[in-house]
Amino acid sequence: MTAISTSGLTKRFRGGQLAVDHIDLAVPHGCVYGFLGPNGSGKTTTIRMLLGLAFPTSGSAALLDVPMPGGATTVLHRVGSLVEGPAFYPFLTGSDNLARYDAADSTADRATARARIEAALDQVGLLAAAKKRYRNYSLGMKQRLAIAAGLLRPRELIILDEPTNGLDPQGTREVRALIRQIAADGTTVFVSSHLLAEVEQVCTHVGVMRTGRLVFQGSLPELRRTGAVRVTVQTADPEAAAKVLTGLGLADAQATEARAHAQAEASAVLGDTSPEQVCAELVHAGIGVRGFAVTSPSLEDLFVGLTGEGFDVSA
User: Fold this and answer.
1) Which of 2, 37, 120, 214 could hold 148 in an S-S bridge, CB 3.0 to 4.6 Å?
2) In terms of DSSP bridges, do strands 157-161 and 188-193 run parallel, antiparallel, or are they unpaired?
3) What gap in Å lies between CA 311 and CA 194, rounded to an integer?
4) Pure H helices in the chain
C-alpha cells in the first residue's frame, strides 16, 4: 500500500525535451517524503502529472491506489495540494478567499463551510488574520493560506511544491512546523524542495531527481548509508599508518604529510571493519596514534554525489 506510486512515468515535451524519464515512485502511507533535486530536474512536472494537470507521455501513476488522471474525480477530494505558489484575490480577506475556493468544490458540504474554513485557518495559525486582506499578508502568511486551502477537508495526502520558496527564515520555520503538524495528524506529506534543512528536520523518506531521472529513493537513514565512512588517524608516521589501513582491507588509504603546525594524517574508507579494530591494529603495529576520528559524509556531499550539483543548504 502506497500513497503515491508511479511506474515508468515519463514526460517528453513537444520540442523534444525529456523532462521526466521513466521514474518509479513509491511513497509509503504516513511518511513525509522529500522530493528533491536541483531546479529543472523534473520535480514540478512530475507533481503536475500526479495531480492530472499534465498528461504523461508514457507510464502510469496512482494516488491512494487510484489510477491518475482517469480517477481524478474519485480521489482528488482526498488530496490537498500547493503547486507553483499560491493564487488568491488580493482584495479579499483570507477567509473570503477560502470561501470562494471551497465554493468551487462541488463535493464540499456547504452547511459546514464556515466551520471548516475557521478550522483550516486555525490549523495554519491564521485565524487572527482571517479578516485581513490577502494583499497585506506576508509571503509566509500567503504560503500558509495556500496550505489552508488544501486542508479545508480531511485529507489523506498533501502534495506541496516548494512550499518555502522565497520565504525568509521565520517564514520557512513556520511552514516547516506546519508540515510536521500535518504529518503528526496522520496525513502523508509529499513535499518537493531544494533545501537540505527541510530534509534533515522534516522528512522521513526521500527521492532524489537528476535531469529527469530518480537517482535515489528510500528512507533518510538509507540515504546516509550510501556514503562512504572514513577513518582519519593523526600520527607522526602517516605512511606507516596508511599501510596498516590498507592491510586491514580499508579502501582508498591515503597519507598526508604535516604542513606548518598541522598534524600529519592517514585516512581511508572504513568499510566493514570496526573503528576499535583499526585503532588496536595501529597500536599493535607500534604506530603512535595522537588522534582518531570516524566521519560520515554530510547530506550535502551525498546530494552532490547523486546529482552532480550543489544544493541550497539554508533554512
Assistant:
1) 120
2) parallel
3) 6
4) 43-50, 72-75, 94-103, 113-123, 139-149, 169-184, 196-202, 220-224, 238-247, 275-284, 299-307
Q: Would you give the distance in Å from CA 227 to the centre of its chain?
A: 18
**DSSP secondary structure code for residue 88 in this structure:** -
pLDDT in tens, the chain (315 residues): 799 999 999 999 988 899 999 999 999 999 999 998 888 889 999 999 999 999 999 999 999 999 999 999 899 989 998 887 678 999 999 999 999 989 988 888 889 999 999 999 998 889 999 999 999 998 888 888 998 998 898 899 999 988 887 777 887 888 888 888 889 989 999 999 877 766 778 899 999 999 999 999 999 888 888 877 888 888 888 888 888 888 888 888 888 876 544 567 777 777 778 888 888 988 999 988 888 888 887 777 787 778 776 555 444
| Alpha-carbon gap, residue 235 to 152, rounded angstroms | 63
DSSP state of 262: P
pTM: 0.80
d(CA 188, CA 63): 11
C-alpha cell, 7: 511506474
Distance CA(55)–CA(58), nearest Å, equals 9
Whole-angstrom distance, CA of residue 190 vs CA of residue 270:
35
Distance from C-alpha of 150 to C-alpha of 190, rounded to nearest angstrom: 13
Cα(296)–Cα(210) distance, integer angstroms: 23
| Pairing outcome for strands 265-269 and 157-161 | unpaired
**Backbone φ, ψ for residue 195 (5° rounding):** -100, 115
All 3 cell numbers of residue 152? Answer: 479545508
Residue 116 identity (one-letter amino acid): R
